[in-house]
Structures are given as structure tokens and as C-alpha cells.
Design a protein that fits this description.
The complex is a heterodimer. Chain A is α/β, with parallel strands linked by helices. Chain A contains ten helices and seven strands. The longest helix of chain A is centred in the C-terminal third of the chain and has 16 residues. Chain B folds into two domains: 179 residues; 106 residues, Histidine kinase-like ATPase, C-terminal domain (Heat Shock Protein 90). The chains are: A alpha/beta, B alpha+beta.
Chain lengths: 227, 358
């Protein structure tokens, strides 16, 4: 059996923490081990990380904590955001700040444990709400997605299973995953730099999800356009 | 619209500066041609100034010039006028000077839509340069009085014109804003009239579908225990909600109508999610009807869950439905710029209605 992934939950509502813990417990493979729960970020971004992954509620005590993500990433955590805020702009900011994945509260039961496992392996995990934020992205510096990537993201956002997306596009389910992961990896190459984004990108190259030539840094373009 | 007025003001200033340089300054230069040690040099400076004015006119008419280009033209004009003044006979300089006014007007032309202080600095530099030439030649009290008189007359006129154009720009902007809001008000009134007409047509259609059903239920000829009758009721209820939703003045009438249709399914115990991605275009009424008809057909057949998404796609919108309908649903016919696509996977139906503005 592979080693368990350690996880910390940062969430100010005990009932949500309890729910997440129960999802972790009911994972048939027992692949995740809960090592810490906290109601705020105090002490988490100093010293050695207590867990491989943190599940972070984006709103703690009434305040958005997206700007604290870079600190957590710098301290060595991989961050999976878990939030009721599914506004695409907030999702984008969360990813730009270095979170591995974004899971909305409605998606928690089906996706949270899988997102934690993907994050621990530095692999992309794209929920439907994340696909939505990518589709809604209108920023001039957004990465260019291929038509296939765009179509796979759209069908996934619409609610199809990945197998159905594959049937629709006449490709294998694995290729569907590949397209969606590649779109996500392209986002890791843009915006502010973070160790977690570099790790995600390196893993994507290693896994053959994306070729180094397909990665374009758009910052210089954005700066040129701003002149 | 205010841009059009601003252009007219710029053209007026170009005309003013050109007439001044050709008639005023040119006339002065020719009239005093005997007084200059070198008429050729004065003529050359007059040409340099004319070229600066031509370049400045092109810049001002094309768009508001960048500060570099504007000041380059202004500095050329300043240099030409100072050189012309310096080469004039000492003691008579002010009497024969043609260049001061032209340089000032050139500054007005190129600095017209920049900050007012820039023009003030330029006119001050121009006056100081002229004063400097006077002082070099040996300043007399009469010279100083003449200098002040010309300064008051010429610079005063230039500042007045620049300030006037500025005031007219502001007035034109306000006039344009007023016209825009009037246009928007007319457009809103027209939209409201169209909505009223559409509501009336829908109400007439209900007279033919919902009213007979209610009459049948009241008379007892339709049995509420019959699944088919219940289905007819669900469909009519959804149509009624759409009718109510259409009248409300909310942004995104399509989203609103889909919400109303979803309410009916929700009351049957079907969980309906509605999500949008990206800025959605306005969909015209007939195309919207095809979309909401598809929504009603699918939501009526859904057993426990349905997801509706609206996504902005190239030149249009993709509205999709994923629902556990069990069997294939009869979808409305495509048309009105709308294409319909579907795929059945086990008990799950995926259907997508795409409207394209082209």
C-alpha cells in the first residue's frame, strides 16, 4: 500500500470540518490521513509544514484569505481551496496565488479527496467550477487554449462525465483528462510565480501532459500591451 | 459625438493659426522687408515656422499628440521666433517683429488639449526669450512699455482662445452625454413596447393551451390521477412562469426564464442547478423561446437531477442540459439561428442548444 497523504483542514465552521473528515474516513482506500484541524491560519506559515496538503476554506471569520495562499505555499504546503465562493474571479485569483485546485462546497463530496491526492502528487485536478472559471476568463494575458482543450473543458463544465465527453469528442477518456490537464498546466505557467505552480508544471511535463514548447509565459505580452 | 465637436474646434484653431501666419505675420514680414539686414534669413525662419504649423496641424487633427511630438513642434517654433528676433535690427525689433505671435499660436495649436499649465509655461518661455533679445540689444524704458503692450495683446488673445476651446470641449461633452441618455431612454421605451406585445401574444397562446386544460380539470373530464394529465399540467405551469418572468425587467432575461422553468421541476422534487460562464450575449426573443422550450421538455422528463449551464461561445451562447431523463426526450425543432445537439449515455441525457448571432 502506498503511503497515506497527510492533510490539514483549515475551516472556521466545525460542522464543515466534521463533514470533510467524514469524507476522508469513508474513502475506501484510506488514502488520506487527517493530521490537523484549525480554525484560522495562525502559526501555519511558519516552521515545518505539519501536512502535505491543506484544505483551505477561502473565507475565515468573514474574511477572504486568498492572499495568504502564497505564504502557505512558501511554507511548503500544497493548497486545495474549498469554498462556497465560486465566483470565477475568486477561483482565478486562488489558482494564480498558487493553490493546486479549487473545489466548491457543492463539489466536495465527489471531488475533495481526489483533489487532495492529485495535489499531493503535484498533478492537476480540474473541478467543474474551475473549468467554469477558465471558460469565463477574459483577461488579455490569459493563456491560449486549443479548440480541443476548450471543447473538453466546456463539456466537462456542462456536466458530462469524462467518459461521455470522450464519446462526444470521439476520443478516449484518457485523452479527455489530458486536454483538461493541459489547459490547467498552461495556467500554471502564467501570472505570479509560485513553487507549487513550478512543481505542477514540471510534473505535467514529466507525465507527458504538456511539452515544454507549448508553455508560453504571457507576462511579457501583458506588459507590452499595457504600454 | 463630443469627438466630432472637438474636431471642429481643432479645425477652427488650425484655420486661425494659418490665417495669422500667412496674413498677419507674412504681411508684417513683407511690409518691413527693407528693415532687415537679411530678408532671406527672416524668410527662411518664416518658412520654418510655417512647416512647424503644418506639422502641428496634422498632429492636432490626427489625435491628441503625445507630449514629445507636441513639445518638439513648440520648441522649433520658439527657436525660429527667437532667431528671427535676434536677427532683427536693434532698437526696432518690436516694431518689425512678426514671429512672436506666430510662435505663440503654434504653441496654442499643439498644446491645445494638454494641461493648461504646459501652454502657460510655453507662452512664458516665448515672452522671456523675446525679452532676452530686447535686453541683449539694450533695453530702454520705451521698449519695455512696447513689450508689455504686445505681451498683453498677443498672449492675452492666445490664452483666451485656448480657454474658450477648453470650455467648448466641456460643453460638447455634456451635450453628447445628454443626447446619449435621450437615445437610451427612447431605446428602453421601444424595448418595453416590444415586451408588452410579446406578452400579449403569449397570453393569447395560453388561452388556447392552458385555459382548455383548466376547463377540463374543472369539468372533471381530465383526471389528475392520469400521468399524462399531470404532465400536461407541469408543462403549462412552466409556460405560465415563463410568461411572468418575461415581463420583469431583469438583466439576462434568458437566465431568468430558465430559472422560472426550473422552479416547476424543483417542485416535483428534481434538483436543478443553473450555472453561467462568461459574459452572456443578449439572445433575441424567438431564439430564446426555442431554448426555453427545450428546457421545459428536458426538465419535465428529468427524474431526480438536472444541470443547466449557459456559456459564452464564439459569436453566441451554448445552453446545455444534463439530466437523468431515462429515455430520449422529444426536443423542439431547431431554427431561429438555433442548433440543437444531444447525446444519450445510459439514463443520462446531454443536450446543447447553441444560438449564433451570425
Amino acid at each position: 500500500m502506498e503511503q497515506q497523504v497527510t492533510v490539514a483542514i483549515i475551516e472556521d465552521h466545525p460542522v464543515v470540518t466534521e463533514g470533510v473528515a467524514s469524507w476522508i474516513r469513508s474513502d475506501p482506500g484510506q488514502r488520506v490521513r487527517l493530521v490537523q484541524t484549525a480554525r484560522d491560519l495562525t502559526g501555519l506559515d511558519t516552521g515545518a509544514p505539519s501536512a502535505a496538503v491543506v484544505i483551505l476554506d477561502l473565507e475565515l471569520a468573514g474574511e477572504l484569505v486568498t492572499t495568504r495562499i502564497p505564504g502557505l505555499v512558501a511554507a511548503g504546503y500544497r493548497v486545495v481551496a474549498f469554498s462556497g465562493h465560486s465566483d470565477p474571479a475568486i477561483v482565478m485569483e486562488t489558482l494564480d496565488n498558487g493553490a493546486h485546485a479549487y473545489v466548491s462546497k457543492e463539489e466536495g463530496r465527489d471531488h475533495l479527496v481526489e483533489a487532495v491526492l492529485a495535489a499531493a502528487a503535484d498533478r492537476p485536478y480540474v473541478t467543474r467550477s474551475q473549468a467554469r472559471a477558465i471558460l469565463a476568463d477574459q483577461r488579455p494575458a490569459r493563456p491560449a487554449l486549443s479548440q480541443q482543450e476548450q471543447q473538453a473543458l466546456l463539456l466537462w463544465f456542462q456536466g458530462m462525465s469524462k467518459a461521455s465527453v470522450g464519446r462526444r469528442m470521439s476520443i478516449s477518456e484518457n485523452t479527455v483528462r489530458q486536454y483538461i490537464s493541459r489547459a490547467r498546466a498552461k495556467y500554471a505557467a502564467t501570472g505570479r510565480s509560485a513553487a507549487s505552480k513550478d512543481a505542477l508544471l514540471a510534473r505535467a511535463i514529466e507525465d507527458g501532459v504538456i511539452k515544454p514548447g507549448e508553455i508560453v509565459t504571457y507576462e511579457s505580452f501583458a506588459r507590452a500591451a499595457g504600454d | 459625438m463630443s469627438g466630432r465637436y472637438q474636431r471642429a474646434f481643432t479645425i477652427a484653431v488650425v484655420f486661425l493659426v494659418a490665417v495669422w501666419h500667412l496674413g498677419g505675420a507674412g504681411g508684417q514680414l513683407l511690409h518691413n522687408r527693407q528693415a532687415f539686414a537679411s530678408f532671406a534669413f527672416q524668410g527662411a525662419m518664416w518658412l520654418v515656422m510655417a512647416l512647424a504649423i503644418a506639422a502641428g496641424s496634422v498632429l492636432a487633427l490626427r489625435a491628441a499628440p503625445s507630449w514629445r511630438l507636441a513639445w518638439a513642434v513648440a520648441v522649433i517654433a520658439l527657436a525660429a521666433s527667437t532667431a528671427a528676433a535676434a536677427a532683427s535690427p536693434a532698437g526696432q525689433m518690436l516694431a518689425v517683429n512678426w514671429a512672436w505671435g506666430s510662435a505663440g499660436w503654434t504653441g496654442v495649436l499643439v498644446l491645445l488639449r494638454r494641461r493648461f499649465t504646459e501652454l502657460a509655461w510655453f507662452l512664458a518661455a516665448e515672452a522671456l526669450a523675446t525679452l532676452g533679445v530686447l535686453a541683449w540689444d539694450g533695453l530702454h524704458r520705451t521698449d519695455l512699455a512696447g513689450f508689455l503692450a504686445v505681451l498683453a495683446w498677443s498672449t492675452g488673445a492666445q490664452v483666451a482662445v485656448a480657454a474658450g476651446v477648453r470650455a467648448l470641449d466641456v460643453a460638447a461633452g455634456q451635450a453628447a452625454a445628454a443626447a446619449r441618455s435621450e437615445h437610451a431612454a427612447r431605446e428602453r421605451a421601444a424595448t418595453a413596447a416590444i415586451i408588452r406585445a410579446a406578452r400579449h401574444a403569449r397570453w393569447l397562446a395560453l388561452q388556447e393551451s392552458a385555459v382548455p386544460l383548466v376547463a377540463e380539470l374543472a369539468a372533471g373530464t381530465a383526471d389528475p390521477g392520469d400521468a399524462q394529465v399531470r404532465n400536461r399540467c407541469a408543462v403549462q405551469a412552466a409556460r405560465l412562469r415563463r410568461l411572468l418572468a418575461e415581463g420583469d425587467e431583469v438583466p439576462g432575461p434568458l437566465v431568468h426564464e430558465l430559472h422560472a422553468s426550473a422552479d416547476v421541476a424543483e417542485r416535483r422534487g428534481v434538483a436543478v442547478e443553473i450555472e453561467t460562464a462568461g459574459p452572456l450575449p443578449q439572445v433575441p426573443g424567438p431564439a430564446r423561446r426555442v431554448i426555453t422550450d427545450a428546457a421545459i421538455a428536458i426538465l419535465t422528463a428529468a427524474r431526480g437531477q438536472a444541470r443547466i449551464t449557459l456559456a459564452a461561445v464564439a459569436a453566441g451562447i451554448a445552453v446545455s442540459f444534463v439530466a437523468d431523463t431515462g429515455a430520449v426526450v422529444r426536443l423542439p425543432a431547431a431554427g431561429e439561428g438555433v442548433a440543437i445537439d444531444h447525446q444519450q449515455d445510459g439514463g443520462m441525457l446531454w443536450a446543447e442548444v447553441r444560438w449564433n448571432s451570425r
